[in-house]
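Fold sample X.
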Amino acid sequence: MHDMIFLAIIWAGVFLSYFLAHKTKLTPVLYFLAFGSTMVNLGVLPEESTEFIRGFSEIGIILIMFALGFEEETNNFIKGIKRSWGIALFGALAPFAVAYYVTLYYWQDPRLSIMCGLAMTATAVSLTMVSLKSERLQNTAASTGIMTSAILDDIASLAAVAILVPLATGEAEITVLGILLVIGKAAAFFFIITLLEIFVFPHSSPLNIYHRIPFINRFGIKDFIAFSKGEQATLAVLLIALLISILSFEFGFHPAVGAYMAGLIMKQEYFHLFEESQEDYYNQTKKIVDNVAFSWIGPVFFVELGTKIVFDQSILMAVIPQIAVLTAGILIGQILSAGLAARLTGNFEWHESILIDLGMLGRAELAFVVIDIGYVQNSIITTEAFYTLMATCFVLNVTVPISIKLWKPYFEGSKQLKLGETWLSKSPSD
């Protein structure tokens, strides 16, 4: 019964958050986080979420990422990877270096600093993409740049966690075999996704194999979606999303990465089920998926994420200098590295580059996994460092929706910002 009460409180908070977002014209994600943090610090919601709420929130993030991938075109994503490698590389190195050296300066413990650096490396892609969607910027080239670089970031961060955490905990030494295993698992996962996209899902293809082996054309994802005259299309695609999410988890990724890839390889043409039918199965399915992802299941993830921010006033006051220095360092380092990389290696315009660096500020899933490993499981991260990291994550996460909201008019060109001879916003000539 407690689970039902907690869910009712969370849904009430989601409803209130949408009301406040409508009144203030800010993204509801900000209010989801704030509500979760407020409720846990008041003792209304528990510090340790129940299995039911944790599972519910995990389903929420899977739905959110699948819905976002469902809107994206595969070709745009692949092009985005070619433009985003620099953003991922430099956008990860800068926050790692900042967190490592700031925490090393204050606590003089290299093992602690490694864990703090890892916690601050990966971008909270789900938070950013939902914030972009709330501002209707999710289909821009900059949004694709954020998504692709964040996924590359995730892969690199997971590899770094697999390599460096055993070193930091003293459980293992870095070996060539261990590094190759991590890289091999990442390559294998994306190879499987490529096979699904090219050979398994389509009914037809220009590839010679479809002409040489005609029976391949008789199968495909279209038959699966068309089961029961298309009435179970939503269930079919959600099942696929869940299965690929489980697969990504087995390969060492967060399930959200698999969910996004599942949505990405799900093409609109697969929903043209019956020649004689006038039903728009694609948009019907998309409407249902968006509703559950962004209205009543997905938001639970962000409220539950907010409950991770539990403050003890005495400890919090003691680490304010560390919080201020680390937060400022991550803000400056992330913005400069990601923004300059987007401009110089990805050839994005300045107004796009700035949106990208703002979108890369959030810290969520992987950060909390690393913090849990370092603080709860192995006692490497001290209580003071724990509060520093949590407060920094909170400030960074709040910064994302606010900064995207503030930059939107400059990104779209309704407001102008010029530095010398360079237009930082979308110039009037664009």
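Fold sample Y, listed below.
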Amino acid sequence: MKVVDTIPRMSTLVKIFKKEGKSIGLVPTMGYLHEGHLSLVRAASKHTDVVVMSIFVNPIQFGPKEDFEKYPRDLKRDEELATSAGADIIFSPSVNNMYPAGYSTYVNVETLTSGLCGASRPGHFKGVTTVVAKLFEIVRPDISYFGQKDAQQAIVIKKMAEDLNMGIEIKIMPTIREKDGLAMSSRNIYLSEDERKDALVLHGSLMKAEEMIKSGERESRKIIRAIEGMIKSVPSARLDYASIVDTVNLKEAKVLSGEMLIALAVFIGKTRLIDNTIVKGLK
């Protein structure tokens, strides 16, 4: 496996791969890898000839009071994990390489970014779409892989690729969870032992919502109220949002039908975690 830390070097390798007729799979990450990231690498290995994992903590998707400076970083650890999962290249450019002095071009997907995490993290998705658009241009992947845990992000990226005729297939892969149901996240490392237990309320409240739906409940208001009640019952938890939206336009629905995304963001202590589930075939 190669570690590439400059855009020119990455671009040169891409030209070689393309000349050789090799397909490229891209797994964009911010590092501090876990099984969720590695599952994307394994999927990419099955579908493409060369798997590139980007590791870049993107400053422009963090708000002024968010955790950019303390976001966990361990490139050596990540190299070992990525290699074990089958990655061929780690692309890990510097901030100055990605955003040199005078940088002033941004990509913004409207409408889809106005709610959910977009409402509570202004500017976040403009940062995400900008860096992913740059990665797409540099790596020129045939397929790029994202996890359902970041469902809004995946839907936004898919829309960007379609609208800008990028010719890249976006594959959204299932959320990978710990044995007790907690969605894997690099930010889980911030949790204390007690907070780690409290964080199970995210998955628990989603399971409760699914149970209500299976029992015939279709009123969004009642389901959200049940989620809110579970979150409020945990002392260290503070709800950012709980919402039920369609999976195409991310519009809130009063009555559930078709395919719906149930998404929530919760602060456990000072750590903001997200989770979601998709329910299908609702009538």
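Sample Y note: The chain is about 40% helix and 20% strand.
Also: The mean pLDDT is 97.
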